[in-house]
Design brief:
It is a single chain. Helices cover 12% and strands 39% of the residues. The protein is built from three helices and 13 strands, in the order βββββββαααββββββ. 31% of the residues are buried.
Length: 214
Amino acid sequence: MPKTDPLRYQVLATGLNLRDRGDLTAKVLRTLPKGARVTRLDISPDKKWLKIRHERRTGWAAAKYLQPVPASPKKSKYPWFDIARGELGVQELAGQGSNPRVVEYLRSTTLEDGAASTDETPWCSAFANWCVERAGHAGSDSAWARSWLTWGKSTRTPSAGCIVVLKRLVDSGHVGFFVSRNDTHVRLIGGNQSNRVCEQDFPLANLLDYRVPG
């Protein structure tokens, strides 16, 4: 679930009355249009009214018609990370057929046409390659996750958007973009994570390397 800005809200109603106090009988100061952005200043004891500021006018409005605004994520110094975030939710198609977007990722690599035409082909490395190339940089051009171990250079201090390579079995792996980590897990935005582009946690024990441009 995306984080929200605790002080920023937007109007859900077609027209929301801004009143001089938290009461339906109070004087209407102005009517706010749907989608208007406001700043929360206070909340009534029963939590039914919010004191808000819109432009230079301050007043009270019904809380049920105000929705917290998602906080803007911090921009990464790696432009492909913002591209990856824009792909969140892309997923494989169930049954026959393939998602054309996933096929687009696969075709950014050196895979042969057959393997690159189906979303049944493992596509985590293809997704990473597509994002990096879309940002105007050279990727690994490979659908093999461990190919990223020779891309750029290693770092011990990962930051949002750097490449993370993980091991799976003996010679297979997984690759994605660094989001965060704790004592036991690293969180990645990646492709082919539960068959879609999403954020997911992986054991730090499986970490092979963090990679940044050389």
